[in-house]
Amino acid sequence: MSNSSKRMRALMATGALGTAMALVLAGCGARAGDDTAGAGSSPAASCVDTSGSTVKLGFLNSLTGGMAISEKTVSNVLHMASDEINASGGILGKKIEYVQEDGATDWPTFAEKTEKLLTQDCVAAIFGGWTSSSRKAVKPVVEKLNGLFFYPVQYEGLESSPNIYYTGATTNQQIIPAMDFLASKGVKKLFLAGSDYVFPRTANAIIKLYAAKLGIEIVGEEYVPLDKDDWTSQVAKIVAAKPDFIFNTINGSSNVGFVKAYYDAGLTPAKTPIISVSIAEEEAPAMGHEVTGNYASWNYFQSLKTDTNPKFIESWKAYPNSSGVTSDPMEAAYISMYLYKALVEAAGSFDVDKVNAAAKANKITFDAPEGTVTLDGENHHISKPGHIGQINKDNQFDVVWASDKFIEPDPYLEGYDWFPADVRKQLVDAAG
Amino acid sequence: MTKSKSWLSLSGIGVFAVLLLAVAPLMLTDHWLNNLGKYCCWAIAAVGIGLAWGRGGMLVMGQGVFFALGAYSMAMHLTLETAGDRIPGFMVLYDPLAPLPMFWEPFRSATFTLLAIVLLPVIVAGILGYALFKRRVKGAYFAILTQALAVALAVLISSTIRETGGDTGLSDFKYFFGFVLNDPANKAMVYFIAAALLIVCLLAVWQLYRSRFGELLVATRDAEERVRFLGYDPANVKLVAFIVSALMASIGGALFVPIVGIITPAEIGAAASILMIAGVAFGGRASLFGPALGAMAVGWGQSSLGSTWPEGWTYILGLLFIVVVLFLPNGLSSLPARLAAARRKPDVQPTPVIVAAELEEVRS
């Protein structure tokens, strides 16, 4: 057989396959043709089975990769909360059976595992995530499949979803109190240092708007990728700009490099203090340098004197593999589990739509370690007290400022006239 | 005899096509079918790596670059399709007043996007390959250079958050060329496209391997100077293989986006590029099916072992990789031939023979 005739046959085979592919395409396309009107097409029927004596819940935390150091603690406290709930009779009399998945600090993996938990494991709700990037990867999937996702970390706001409950702070519960605190300290010049991803970028955009209103000058703004530790040249710019305060939105281990560069450059908490929104009791001792005298803005501190906090700290210290200290994100994760229990029991059902309806119809509260929090059934965030802590020698926080009452969640900053209405509208429109 | 072997490979592709296009959709749930679609995307890129590395001897450690060209072209189009007349939400978030970046505008057009997915990798690989191969850059230097490009591109994307979505990536696509992506039927359609394109890529390399070009490519790999003395320019031979492999990576990347629903710099950087190589080495880089099956096996391992044993699975992958490199340098696909050879002559070390025998398999 000649070479050319062989080549002909191969090409014919390829052509035939291409045709087959086109036929397959046409078949599928026709079926879906009627559906192009609405993007939120009818979700697949839920496969959640709660007819037995248990209810399945999914935990989605990064157990490997760069965020594992923070997210393992959240995973562990979720286990503790579900053990507690099981010991006291479960949710609606059903014991929690959890499925733990690893998000691997990889956003597509978060999306894949969310789909797996909802469609293969048929869990009634998912708890977890840490970075805003992971939440943004999970969001389209839970919305598509009409699942529930409980997100336990402070974030940049400007978001709400019928399928997500946010138990960490939104901006008006953490960033804005921090700015109010700075204004009360008479700060005139502020430097912004952050990791290069969605939370710091958005938080700083909001900080700049509010700073203009407060009369605080932003004397510089620097970003370093999440996985990079070298802050030397950026800190040199801070030294040159001579700010009164540094607003730190750096996340994860990059903080270690920042703190090192800060002290190496001769900066001190006495003259140029840092206020952070990602350094808590867990992180402070891991900075590789004493950070006493610097500040952080959170809702919960281990040092808070509330009725429920001592028991929470005691249970956590006794829990296997516990880190020994409590912190804001793990407390928010603890809240999320009890909030879900309260929601399901108010709804009398694990059904997502009924749970959401119960959130709107009832005043859902929980006596959390940070105080009694109340769920806003419309935007799925909770009320929180604002606190500013100063780091002491034991790497605990002395509370130096507190909001006069619990702050109602306002993710789209509708109660703040300095936030441009057209931007809000664009964001709401883009969110669909 | 060699002729029959060549047609045996073709029927192998046929069986593979039946498995992917008929058996898998019937047997698998939506979730696993979608995962299989993702593995097909990596397999498409892997087939290209098999061509460039297995047959051409060019260790392409930066296929993430071409994967990114396809993926981000597709992702920009789908983002604009979802946003409609508005500016995509993430851009508003970082800078409410700025307009859409210039380089996004053409991606509104579906035709431009499809052309970009095909032409961008060809142009980039063409220029890069021409510059490198004409200067006779090869071996470790070539590998390091391609790897560095993947790292650089990932850093560039991470640091341009408003233009590219940065580390968070691009996600939340609602439409795929007019089809609603939430519809399971349409998700299945995207799977079929990926699976069919994988088959097309396999057929393309099957044809390339048995053509005179395929012989020249292997000759260039094994004795570049001799090829030059025979009057061919090895640079041109390598350039074609490099461009074809870049094109395949781009196609894999483009389909990855609607299937997975998100693209981030982590999927195109150094680690991702090396994982693609690992799959190819695992399956057998010079064989026809080895790269595709190896890439799919690694993808499956990541999904399933990553669930049951998250801390351990990377160690398993590493261990397998070491075992394969040490004891089966031609990958798992050389195992049957090796066993057969061992049965025939138990006392002879068969390794050198295998490469030739295996190459023979798909040549006419």
Automatic annotation (TrEMBL), chain A:
<protein>
    <submittedName>
        <fullName>Urea-binding protein</fullName>
    </submittedName>
</protein>
<dbReference type="InterPro" id="IPR017777">
    <property type="entry name" value="ABC_urea-bd_UrtA"/>
</dbReference>
<dbReference type="Pfam" id="PF13433">
    <property type="entry name" value="Peripla_BP_5"/>
</dbReference>
<keyword id="KW-0732">Signal</keyword>
<dbReference type="InterPro" id="IPR028082">
    <property type="entry name" value="Peripla_BP_I"/>
</dbReference>
<feature type="signal peptide">
    <location>
        <begin position="1"/>
        <end position="32"/>
    </location>
</feature>
Automatic annotation (TrEMBL), chain B:
<feature type="transmembrane region" description="Helical">
    <location>
        <begin position="60"/>
        <end position="80"/>
    </location>
</feature>
<keyword id="KW-0472">Membrane</keyword>
<keyword id="KW-1003">Cell membrane</keyword>
<dbReference type="InterPro" id="IPR043428">
    <property type="entry name" value="LivM-like"/>
</dbReference>
<feature type="transmembrane region" description="Helical">
    <location>
        <begin position="6"/>
        <end position="29"/>
    </location>
</feature>
<dbReference type="InterPro" id="IPR001851">
    <property type="entry name" value="ABC_transp_permease"/>
</dbReference>
<dbReference type="InterPro" id="IPR017778">
    <property type="entry name" value="ABC_transptr_urea_perm_UrtC"/>
</dbReference>
<dbReference type="GO" id="GO:0015658">
    <property type="term" value="F:branched-chain amino acid transmembrane transporter activity"/>
</dbReference>
<keyword id="KW-0812">Transmembrane</keyword>
<keyword id="KW-1133">Transmembrane helix</keyword>
<feature type="transmembrane region" description="Helical">
    <location>
        <begin position="270"/>
        <end position="300"/>
    </location>
</feature>
<feature type="transmembrane region" description="Helical">
    <location>
        <begin position="312"/>
        <end position="329"/>
    </location>
</feature>
<feature type="transmembrane region" description="Helical">
    <location>
        <begin position="140"/>
        <end position="161"/>
    </location>
</feature>
<feature type="transmembrane region" description="Helical">
    <location>
        <begin position="239"/>
        <end position="264"/>
    </location>
</feature>
<protein>
    <submittedName>
        <fullName>Urea ABC transporter membrane protein</fullName>
    </submittedName>
</protein>
<dbReference type="Pfam" id="PF02653">
    <property type="entry name" value="BPD_transp_2"/>
</dbReference>
<feature type="transmembrane region" description="Helical">
    <location>
        <begin position="110"/>
        <end position="133"/>
    </location>
</feature>
<feature type="transmembrane region" description="Helical">
    <location>
        <begin position="188"/>
        <end position="209"/>
    </location>
</feature>
<feature type="transmembrane region" description="Helical">
    <location>
        <begin position="36"/>
        <end position="54"/>
    </location>
</feature>
<dbReference type="GO" id="GO:0005886">
    <property type="term" value="C:plasma membrane"/>
</dbReference>
